[in-house]
Write a structure and sequence with these properties.
The chain has 2 domains: 136 residues, no CATH class; 107 residues, Orthogonal Bundle (Transferase(Phosphotransferase), domain 1). 48% of the residues lie in helices and 12% in strands. It contains 11 helices and 9 strands. A hairpin with a 3-residue loop joins strand 2 and strand 3. Helix 6 packs parallel to helix 10. Bound molecules: adenosine-5'-diphosphate and magnesium ion. The site of adenosine-5'-diphosphate has 24 residues, from strand 1, strand 2, strand 5 and helix 7.
Length: 269
């Protein structure tokens, strides 16, 4: 599978438009408050309402981000709502990013695999939830799948490269620590596209927002590190030469087979 860029921030440019979108959403939430008896019903209702807005070009209103796997909307209370892309919208987004549509099936399979893993993990090991932005899943799979997550701050693309070198390497160090914590829970992030797939929570912790490019077996994780996936991942290639070589050095010295043996699944209940 070739690298794909994880997502693009889309901001409604016209403030009047965005105010009216907020009003429409609020009306929908108010209605849901009056008809949903359980939280599951509320989340379901929210998913179908948001999906109903996804028609043609205008569907971008109200989105704060999107990738091949999910469309992301802001919720009140510093949370976001992530709705699965349909097969067709995933294909369109991937083509927009310059990808080959033949790979979309595999990308959607990885979405399900990651979401299923994290859903089970946070229910059995609730203390791991913060690593993934405290997700709450609607329990559906495929196109019907959706989840809530903490609102995170992303430092994407040019803004990341514009940070002082020490801050960039500090972020990468924290990302590597996230990977090692994941190892202790029997999984790993293999994307290395930390600019678009991780964000900062309100306490400045690096959090994995995107569960769609995970390794969920030790054998696959080992392969990712043996292949040195960091050598050609998109997130590494876009760094300056200086930061790139520091980063690769950090990945090589931190993500070793010995560390994997030491940490793998040790915190799983
Ligand atoms: N929790 C979040 N808070 C704020 N923005 C988010 C959050 N999760 C995702 N985003 C934005 O949406 C984009 C796509 O989300 P992501 O989870 O990476 O979906 P995909 O799996 O489709 O790539 C991210 O790159 C980011 O810009
Ligand atoms: Mg992504």
């Amino acid at each position: 599978m070739t690298e794909f860029e994880g997502g693009t921030m889309i901001h409604p440019s016209d403030s009047e438009e965005s105010a009216s979108a907020t009003r429409t959403h609020q009306d929908a939430w108010d209605r849901l408050d009056s008809i949903a008896d359980t939280e599951e019903q509320w989340i379901d209702g929210q998913a179908s309402y948001l999906r109903s807005l996804m028609v043609g070009e205008d569907d971008r209103l109200g989105r704060i981000g999107s990738g091949v796997q999910y469309v992301v909307y802001a919720l009140p209370g510093d949370r976001v709502f992530k709705v699965s892309q349909t097969r067709m919208s995933a294909r369109n987004e991937y083509k927009r990013q310059g990808g080959d549509e033949i790979e979309v099936g595999e990308i959607l399979r990885l979405r399900e695999e990651g979401a299923d893993y994290v859903r089970k993990l946070v229910s059995e090991n609730p203390e791991s939830s913060g690593l993934f932005g405290n997700p709450v899943f609607n329990g559906e799979s495929g196109t019907a799948g959706a989840f809530e997550q903490d609102m995170l701050t992303f430092i994407e693309g040019d803004s990341f490269n514009a940070l002082p070198v020490s801050e960039q390497t500090d972020y990468i160090h924290k990302y590597i620590e996230v990977i090692k914590s994941m190892w202790s829970y029997g999984c790993s992030d293999r994307s290395m596209n930390f600019q678009v797939n991780t964000g900062l929570d309100s306490e400045g912790n690096v959090v994995l927002a995107d569960f769609g490019e995970m390794d969920v077996t030790k054998a696959n994780t080992l392969k990712t590190i043996q292949d040195g996936r960091w050598n050609n991942a998109w997130g590494i290639r876009v760094l300056s030469e200086e930061v790139q070589s520091i980063a690769i050095g950090m990945f090589e010295s931190e993500l070793t087979e010995a560390k994997l043996d030491e940490l793998w699944a040790k915190n799983l209940k």
